[in-house]
Amino acid sequence: MGTIVYIDGFNLYYGALKYGPHRWLDLAALCATLLPGRTIKTIRYFTATVVDYPHDPYASIRQEVYLRALGTLPNVVIHREGWFSKHAKMLPQYPLAYRNNPTKPPISVQVWRLEEKRTDVDLATHLLVDCFSGDFDEAVVISNDSDLTLPIEMVRNKFKKRIGVINPQAKSKMNNNLRNAASYHYQKISRVVLGNCQLPTNLTDNAGLAISKPAAW
Hints:
Blueprint (H helix, E strand, L loop, with lengths): L2 E6 H9 L9 H8 L5 E9 L10 H12 L5 E17 L15 E10 L1 H14 L5 E5 L6 H10 L3 E5 L9 H6 L2 E3 L4 H6 L5 E3 L5 E3 L5
Parallel strand pairs: 1-2, 1-5, 2-3, 5-6, 6-7
Antiparallel strand pairs: 3-4, 8-9
């Protein structure tokens, strides 16, 4: 049966890709590099359509181009049923600021609160359904989201399946709950690996249409 990899796209992007030059990432090459010797049956990539801002009006277009590029990889399945919720919210200013008296609540400022909805639940659901169905010998989750702790524990302890967790967040340690839940874990993905696992600058999709890496990437 082989291995199925479950990728938290939001966690991967903000943890390893957003502030670097490796956003044109080849997920098949990445998984083959991180998991040598495995037969990788499927790579499930979970994401949501990004929100455009006045200072970055083409973010969703770049994402669409990237998803088209991923669509050329035969074992990658894209799940994009999630969405982003964007709303104004009052939060304490950081570093904490006080008007006159530090014993009173700190000054609050209005911010845009952007929250990704559903993708972690979708990842957990597919992980468990695939496990119930006996679709893999081993599962690997690329995320550092502690919300995934329980389904990972279920796969390992109740169904006796081997499951690994890979932390994509270069500046954050592996979450202890995830590390303890999994059969094994990798602390982070190195920049060298990311640099070696890039898609070609120009591709052609199944319809014969050209795909080019966004200039900003």
